[in-house]
Amino acid sequence: MSTTGATADPLAALGDLPGVADSVESVRKAVDRVYGHRVMRRRSNEITSEAALRGARGSAALSGADWALEEVRRRSDFSGDDEARTVGAALRLTAEAGQLLSIWRQSPLRVLARLHLVAAADKAEHVGRPRRAGEPVDEPLIDLPLPGAEEMHGRLEGLAEIVIAGGSAPALVTAAVVHGELLALRPFTSRNGLVARTAERIVLVGSGLDPKSVCPAEVGHAELGQDAYREALKGYLSGTPEGMAAWIAHCGRAVELGARESTAVCEALQRGAA
Fold first, then answer.
1. Closest-CA residue to 217 (of 1, 71, 30)
2. How far from 168 is each of 14, 102, 230, CA to CA, in Å?
3. How far apart are CA 52 and CA 201, in angstroms?
4. Is the pLDDT of residue 261 over 60?
5. What digits encode the pLDDT tens for the residues 215-256?
6. 80 Cβ neighbours under 8 A, 6+ residues apart
7. Domains in the chain: ranges and CATH
8. In Å, how far are 47, 241, 265, 268, 269 from 273, measured between CA atoms?
9. For 157-171, what is each residue's pLDDT tens digit?
10. Rg of the Cα trace of the chain?
């Protein structure tokens, strides 16, 4: 991704792709349903906490650690095997995301470096900085062509410029592009999927679409499954209007499913069952 020769708002045109406006509207309605629930007026902090837990579980599942929610809730030690460390990283990222909202629009690269530092805290090197030429990437579930380090750095800078410039593109479109570009680039030597999904969350929350962070897209991505996730990502990588629209729609559906999850939590709390 490059901003060379681009308009002031290079993402705006994506909002006009076939089906994207419908996805944006559908997401808005799903989010409004959660925020309009009577439980949200009294117990929104509980919904936010539960959404964070479920979002972390979903993101970890997409990175190969598909644990039951109650197992994630029960555990206090995540220093064991690879799956446990993945779940621990997802939980740390979810907790960290809220602290970085004010920094994102001014310095997205700084935020991404911080996210990787938090996610890869169990690794001794290559932490908190983009990969360099010759450094391998450990992202086994994303089996797609990997851009070289020079191309990656250029596109990462371009993505940062777009975020800083802002624009009129819907939050869903911006979140989907940030998510897709980070997965395409895999700028770090590890934990790129976890970082990309956390960055998507930051955009959705920081944009004002989901200010209380109660619509965890990670839940929806996990529910839609790894195969659908990879297939939709291929559409993003194709760069075609159809592929881009399909990826945005996929991300929109994930947000809707996250909203549905929190609506169910609200209903359970209302019944006194949770």
1. 30
2. 11, 19, 28
3. 10
4. yes
5. 999 999 999 999 999 999 999 999 999 999 999 999 999 999
6. none
7. 12-271 (1.10.3290.10)
8. 14, 45, 9, 5, 6
9. 999 999 999 999 999
10. 18
Per-residue pLDDT of 66-97, as tens digits, reads 999 999 999 999 988 999 999 999 999 999 99
Q: Which two tokens stand for residue 43?
A: 């117990």
Q: Which two tokens stand for residue 263?
A: 């609506």
Contact 244, 23 (CB under 8 A): no
**Tokens 């837990």 correspond to what residue?**
53
What is the rounded distance in angstroms from the CA atom of residue 274 to the CA atom of residue 269? 5
Q: Which residues contact 13 (CB under 8 A, 6 or more apart)?
A: none
